[in-house]
Amino acid sequence: MDNKFTVTPWETNGKIDYEKLIKKFGTTKLEKDILTKLESKTKSGKNHFFFRRNFIYSHRDFDKMVEGIDKNNFYIYTGRGPSGKMHIGHLIPFIICKWFQDEFGCNIYIALSDDEKFAVKQKLDLNTARKYSLENIEEIAALGFDPDKTFMFIETDFIKQIYKQALEFSKRTTLSTAKAVFGFKNETNMAHLFYPFVQMAPTTLEKNKFCLIPAGIDQDPYWRIQRDNAEKLGFKKVIAIHNKLLSTLHGVGGKMSSSDSDNSTINLDDSFETVKKKINKYAFTGGRPTLEEHRALGGIPEICVIYHYLESLFEEDDSKLKNIYDEYKSGRMTSGEIKNILILKINNYLKKHNENKIKNKPLIEKYMHTGKLAKKMQEM
Amino acid sequence: MDNKFTVTPWETNGKIDYEKLIKKFGTTKLEKDILTKLESKTKSGKNHFFFRRNFIYSHRDFDKMVEGIDKNNFYIYTGRGPSGKMHIGHLIPFIICKWFQDEFGCNIYIALSDDEKFAVKQKLDLNTARKYSLENIEEIAALGFDPDKTFMFIETDFIKQIYKQALEFSKRTTLSTAKAVFGFKNETNMAHLFYPFVQMAPTTLEKNKFCLIPAGIDQDPYWRIQRDNAEKLGFKKVIAIHNKLLSTLHGVGGKMSSSDSDNSTINLDDSFETVKKKINKYAFTGGRPTLEEHRALGGIPEICVIYHYLESLFEEDDSKLKNIYDEYKSGRMTSGEIKNILILKINNYLKKHNENKIKNKPLIEKYMHTGKLAKKMQEM
User: Fold this and answer.
1) What are phi and psi of B7, to 5 degrees?
2) Do B181 and B128 belong to one domain?
3) Which residues are within 8 A (CB) of A290 and not within 5 positions of it... i.e. 6 or more apart?
4) Cα→Cα distances B34→A43, A107, B63, B240, B311, Å
5) What percent of chain B has pLDDT over 70?
6) Is residue A242 located within the same domain as residue A266?
7) Across the A/B interface, how many CB contacts are shorter than 8 Å?
8) What is the pLDDT of residue A262?
9) Does pTM surpass 0.80?
10) Quick count: other Cβ atoms within 10 Å of Cβ B150?
């Protein structure tokens, strides 16, 4: 391959070629007819811009679910690996969860995988993973899910309810299959080896519904084993939709990761000044070396991280986005100007997010224990 | 080796050479001075005949525990793999548990490893493993443990309380170590691979006490990994005492196993007639081909399963046992006569066991949920 990249549940490197990933993982491109059908069934009459802009671009069996889509035919299961504080890229699956809940009224299950992060991070202890889990839940709760239809759980707390299904999946998977799918080596630790089966287990929480997983395509290997075994266990094969990964500030194509230097990501608790500094100082643009050249040749939105962020997360309005594209492409808009647009957008977004975070704190007890769905889960 | 045998947690084959096993597993022979010290601290002033007769014959660090033995310096953890109904050999660890509790007032934790048996038995499902667990608990409860100092649990029920410690042990163990210790192969399933760490976890239930494991030496591999990691985790290394394995009816040296044909074992629910028939028809004796030869040459107690059962389980009185040995050895006692002694002993034992099983049924709720220790565990 001339363009080397790695995408696994635990590691993403290099510039990602999404077409190749579809082939590599054996998933299906999300085609227009499915999206048209989905849109026709929404309450608002409009697909989320993640769909409109092909940011969610690949799937497994999503067409089967869309066929009869309704709050009673599916629920959503997603999660967050609590390895530290969250950045804007981490919100993507939750944004799409919220959209589905608003449009269809579905149940949502959100796992905080403290066990996973403990297993894979050499230095992380369980108490710290728990602390991160609780902090991360505050960020996720900011999105304002329905407190009776949303269950958030820390996996080590909820293990009793999911352990048996983890056993069912793991009994049906040999070590050699697990090595092939997850790339386990002789030096991999045994907590890491078992974790995928814990992650699979909540795909069986509602027996007769489809379980929809919105996630980065890097999480796909988990669902392959689920899909090979679910029907034998009396459940439906998981449905997946895959979003592209939000790039670092350093260039379009890689995945934003909190393991990188702090300068490559926008954290949810970054101050206005920090956002401004990071965008101005570290963001890779599609601008030309000099203003003169820029005016003459125009910017290159396709390689511009600023444009990528506006398109992927911060400019919901398609016509405004198109206008920015045209202005930048033509050279009428400078890199400084497009940066200022993004800085303002991000800071507005974060301001609202942090207000909602405070406002929704009282809902957390409902999401975890006392809401209608949470209560049912706790009593399982 | 001229004498091939296999002893692992999941498989025992061939005639066991216990001296070789001590060397193979790297455990220590249980020497007289430790037993003398133990005896000096008992309430009754007398060691159990398992100790007196070298049936419990090997250990790890038992001397350290005996040094200051007292209900506050140790607790016992043992278990049962619920793969079907129980035979007399299965009672051995529980008999010694009961003895320790009577002599020292220690807490006892008894795990029913439904997850393990589900993982290793191809055809066993979790519901059936649960049913066996509940049936087996009735047999174990027949021994009459202290309801405030004994906790019996089914592992899939108690997993929340032990999962974190299972993660701690498993994070510290690489796949290659697990393969070396447990003999895992590429075709081993992933539920089986994780199970040892669940089994290890309850060795941390009482932080400042020794955890004593009475078990067959075939269970030793579990404790090696525990002992390598416990101190790093702030716990004491597990203490083990190893009993020899009760032979099948077919010959001294192998392990009684319910996986063999039903004719090789005495089950706890065998009727008087069944016991009589099994002993008379299937038990291997130390008798000679003809009565004449037997009278002339004498029997061979050392290879006689009947004598082995009397010595290992059914004749508590040392002088009576010696008398039987002498009579049989001299040829004055025939194989028919020694068989009749055993049949009577077993049937008396089973009669009492089954009466106690009914009598103690009401205690099960205490052992599992409402006794002092069980309650504390449930609220963990």
Assistant:
1) -135, 110
2) yes
3) none
4) 77, 62, 6, 14, 22
5) 94
6) no
7) 111
8) 73
9) yes
10) 28
Amino acid (1-letter code) at residue B91: L
Do residue B95 and residue B240 come from a single domain? yes
State the pLDDT at residue A124.
98
- Listed range (A128-142, A240-254, A345-359, B295-309) with the worst mean pLDDT: A240-254
Cα–chain-centroid distance for residue A144?
Answer: 17
Indicate whether A257 belongs to any domain.
no
Mean pLDDT of the B13-31 span: 85
ipTM comes to: 0.92
Place of tokens 């601008």: A287
What is the average pLDDT score of chain B? 93
Confidence band, pLDDT 50/70/90 cuts, at residue B25: confident
Domain extent for A203? 6-249
Q: What are the Cα distances from residue A361, in Å, to A55, A76, A137, A152, B9?
A: 30, 22, 9, 13, 49
Residue B63 tokens read as 């001397």
B187 lies within 8 A of chain A by CB:
yes
pLDDT range class, residue B218, cuts 50, 70, 90: confident
Banded model confidence at residue B258, pLDDT cuts 50, 70, 90: low
The minimum CA-CA distance between B131 and chain A, rounded to whole Å, is 15
Q: Residue B110 phi/psi, 5° resolution? A: -120, 115
CATH number for the domain harbouring residue B337: 1.10.240.10
CB contact under 8 A, A164 and B171: no
- Residue in chain B closest to A188 (alpha carbons) equals B174
The verdict on B376 touching A (C-beta cutoff 8 Å) is: no
Residue B7 has pLDDT above 70, yes or no: no
Number of domains chain A contains: 2
Nearest to B169 by CA among B111, B222, B100, B215: B222
Which of A117, A160, A171 should we substitute to test contact with B (largest number of B Cβ atoms within 10 Å)? A171
Does B160 sit within 8 Å of A159, measured CB to CB?
yes
Q: To the nearest whole angstrom, how far is the Cα of A213 from the nearest Cα of chain B?
A: 23
Burial class (CB in 10 A: 0-12, 13-18, 19+), B268: buried
Put simply, the answer to whether B175 touches A189 (Cβ < 8 Å) is: yes
Which one of A119, A170, A175 has the shortest CB-CB distance to B184?
A: A175
The tens digit of pLDDT for each residue in B111-165 reads 999 999 999 999 999 999 999 999 999 999 999 999 999 999 999 999 999 999 9
Q: Are A81 and A106 in contact (CB under 8 A)?
A: no
Do A194 and B168 count as a contact with CB atoms less than 8 A apart?
A: no
DSSP class of residue A370 equals I
